[in-house]
Structure prediction request, 128 residues.
Amino acid sequence: MGFLTGLLGLAGDVDREGLARELGPVLLPDEGIEVAFQIVRDQIVFTDRRLILVDKQGVSGRKRAYHSVPYRAITMFSIETAGSFDADAELRIWISGQPTPLTQKLSRGVDLSGISQALAAGVLPPAR
Prediction:
């Protein structure tokens, strides 16, 4: 996943060191964060092994749901852009063995192309 290192400019205001401390209990000791995207309060984190979706819940955001998806389990993904009267975009990730896709709402202005490129780099086999 060395390609993702080139996408670090797309990470926005996510502090990777702070995020690594925050995700410390979830990450393996030798697992590194490649790219992360902030979506309002939630985060999409691409590590060198998997995709982690962090859903901060409640008023304070202290309650969190972590969705951890190994890249090999992702069979397909789609990104639906926001329209003129629709304020939110949507990310759908189909996971092997799951009947329905994992769905994440994305606010207007989120780097959709960066998320798409990072997902493609993790899911697609390297070019020969």
